[in-house]
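Changelog note: in this version the structure field was regenerated for every chain. One regenerated record is shown below for reference.
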Amino acid sequence: MKTIAQGIAAQIVLASSFLIPVQGVNAADPVAVVSVSGIKEALSDVEYLLEATGTDAFGQFFMPSVKNYLQGLNTERPLGMALSFNGTDFQPLVFLPVDDLDTFLTQVEDTVGEPADAGDGILELQGPETVFVKQKDGWAFVAQHIEALDDLPEQPEKLLGGLYKEYDVAIRGFIGNIPEQYREMIIGQMEAGMEQGLADNDDPNAEKLARAQVDEIKRLFNEADTLTFGWNVDTKNKQIYFEGSATAKPGSKLARDMAATANAQTKYSGFIVPNAAISGNLAGVITEDKATQTKAMLSTFEKSAVEELEKDGDIDSDEMRASAKNLVSSVFKILRDTADTGKFDSATSVILEGSSITIASASHVADGSEAEKLVQDLVKAAEKSGDVSFSKLKFNAGTHNGVRLHEIAIPIPDEEYVSTVLGGELEVCIGADQNDLYVVVGANPVSTLKSMIDSSKAKGAIKASPFNATVKLSPILRFAESVEGKIQVGEIAEMLEDSGNDHVRIEAVYKPNQAAYRFTIEEGVLRAIGQVIQAQMAQNF
């Protein structure tokens, strides 16, 4: 345990040893920074995670030793690293808040060796890599070359730009500070890879798509200001999250795209069901260049799908093959036409109640009547193939709130596993109007669809996340319990229901000049993971 704790402490000192070794540093204009919120907060977060996952007994075994070997460091202030460019190469500079540097170095002496006096208040450490340390104004600065300690920042924490207040650990890259020759080198390598990949591909759409993707990366290098990746343990809200974000240079096209997406709206709020097992939405604008890129990608996919149909040996007639190819073409035409509308909007929920499942979805389309015709063609093709039979087939079964309704039911044999969930038949209700396509699969699909349409139209278009996906664990476990009858699953579900914080989320947040994606895990999910780990360990021992 002593070795582990010493290793953690030593890595703080040696963090800069494995980056590009050069001379000189210009910390005022870093290419990248690494931020750690502070040792006290980091240790507190570790203890919280151990408690949340039910593994705090393990923490009691090693945490005291870790704390002991961090003596001498100031635990309240942040620590970090700045990676800068000196005109020819990169240079890392680590800065640690210290109360007593000698005490800290004594703790890690077994790893980094006894400090040697290098003059001018600088210490040399002969560990796996030689580093130099200089103390100034309550900070210990660590560099790979002694010259890098000549001109040290007065308040190094300002280099972190407040990252330590937002995240426990974060990395931020300053795209504009990357030297031009390095940016050109990266882009050149990508273009060379693209050319090599296209060498044996005669699809003009594939080439168009590949070049558009490279152009997007070029634009990112030219128009992005910063890229940030952060991790945080949010003990107040009882969750952890990972976040990646980008900021754009003001006035750039990237900034305009971000601003447009920040105003995303959805008119399908009724299809985002609170406490659904799974729910999510997509909403936003499709700029002209994005539409061109999207259509090229769809055409490439269409060509591949048609080629697969040509080679499919299970299709036993030219008529069936032609019908399948027509259906594929219809699907991709609808998608391309929708891209041309300049927006996308969809919402979906998976609702689990007991052993029943209902899936409801709504999507913006360029022409609802074309989508209806596609559904009818799919049904006719299935009937003709003989692979699917229908116990109900009612096109134009009625209208509701301006939406044309179609009802379909497919019988399910009792011996099929899916019959346990869906009962004797799979019921589907499809709705369409001018620019909307609705689908509900499961129990009572007609009444469910009508209710969701009414709810959506009553609220109208409302502000929405450009992308959101939420999974609620407790109904999924209850569903598994009802189908499989496993007691332990039910016990975990009950624990999650009591806690109420059993979600996993991925959400996009756009602001002027900024786009961020956050992945969140709530405490209840951590506790469930801990129970699974403990149960697995109990089985192994």
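Spot check on this record: The chain has four domains: 2-177, 180-223, 264-284+342-540, 287-340. The CA atoms of residues 533 and 539 lie 10 Å apart.
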